[in-house]
Amino acid sequence: MNIIVCAKQIIDVSEMKIDSSTNKPIIEGTPHIINEIDKNAMEEAIKIKEKNGGKITVLTVSSKDAKEKIKELLAMGADEAVIVKSPEDSDYHMTAQLLSEAIKKIGDYDLVLCGEASVDLFSGQMGPRVAALLKIPQLTYAQKITAEKEKITAERNMGEHVVTSESSYPVLVTVTKEVNDPRLPSLMEILAAANKPITEWTAEELKSDLKPAVSTLDLKGVKMDRKNVIYENDLDKSVEKLVDSLAKEGVLGG
Amino acid sequence: MIKMVLVYSDNKNLTIEMLGKATELSKENKKEVTSVIIGKQDEKLANEYISYGADQVFIAETDFDTFKAEEYADIFTKIIDEIKPELILIGSDKNGKELAARLSGLINSGCVMDSNNIYYKDGKLNAERVVYSGKSIAIEQFKSKPAIITIPSKAFDTPKKDDGRKGNITKKKIDPEKSNSKNLKIQEMKTEGANVEDAEIIVSCGRGFKNKEDIKIANELADVLKGKTVGCSRPIAADLKWLSEDHWIGLSGHKVKPKLYIAAGISGQIQHIAGMRDSGVVVAINKDPDALIFNSADYGIVGDLYEVLPKLTEKIKEKMG
Lengths: 254, 321
What we know:
By secondary structure, chain A is an alpha/beta fold.
């Protein structure tokens, strides 16, 4: 079974600083990580390969250099990687086009796995967009997957309902964080990943004349003024002070 | 040619909220609003949508009984061919999101998910959405038509109902291309009726709780507070399953805005903050003085929740009489 895992390099939001004068986020200089839900997709791919055999290709589209980070997924268990360099102004439409064109170029595939969303922007549109462009079914929000030779079954968290769906191949499946616990590669695996093949394509090779359908005009700051009054040491006094403060705030009901 | 705004959700209340926003947007820019119903003919519902602001209701009659994004998206491409809308608003539940995303892929449209502010500026359509776990709001501008935007519940007010409003109802049988996927089973999600999104006061539990049984000390505090509800962070619901997912507050759980939020034994990971940052007063209880949660709190007590919570419960009981 040939599996393609789509992964995204994102900024580490927990390390993102805020400009104190404008309240705006400072993107420049924030460290990059692989979207953690994409690691769940990779883990699932490895499990499916262990059961059914086959090959795992990890695919990423990025305007920044993604080579170092993608090696983490090679170390986890991908056999090879494809990196597509995209224009700076790429939006979801362009990235989905590039992912689907790259998947067509990779060719022979049965299963495309993605995270349900990336934790930076949490939009969650990439999986279904790519499935649409590939004209294949989509099983979204999978929290449990059973892959057999002829079909794949997914238990999907649809909010108020759990929907169990199945599909023949080829199919695209998006996973949630609950689907598994991604493995941590060993030192040996990390070293071995250095020798795994990484292919690099440019956006122009795959699709020319792509223009964004949406562009981000600005990232506004969000003010979060918290009082940060912290009580320590004497617990009884702390509790008393806290209750007095809450009463003054008028939030104790009644 | 009259410009169209198309509105769709399988959730009636959400559709009505979107109709309110769609009507407001079309008043400024001379557009008509079409509400879409997929499935069985329901003229009563169609008339209700008209009374809430739809100029036209398009009923796509189909014979399938469960939702599949592939088939719904295919139906929408046919409706779009006919109506040629320049803006499509879709309800932002999980069905709606995967439908909007697939549809965007099919017609190469721009799509902004979970927008709570939509407006025209200098003739351009802008939609705002929360990004980076609530640390920022992105202003997204559409460069092409149609624009697709998904809207969460309660982002916009319910418009006034006018039973005298007139509108057209169009019915059309549409046979979409069948998908190779199949829904085998649809079960209700297990819930304990926590309803955290409507709660006024929430006592929330994190990894600082050592056993499932200990959650009762959070319950006891919640009980003495009015608007009592217990919430939790991701590990408690998703990994340990000590509470059902309706308690889960965070980026992929529920977003809450109570007037008082008490976080007990919660470390304050950014994904949790994303779910509770709009709360009124935030209280943090954690034995680690360096816990991130204290940065997002108005008041904090550094201490063991097993000691603090019972004392707090007693003190509040005293205070409130």
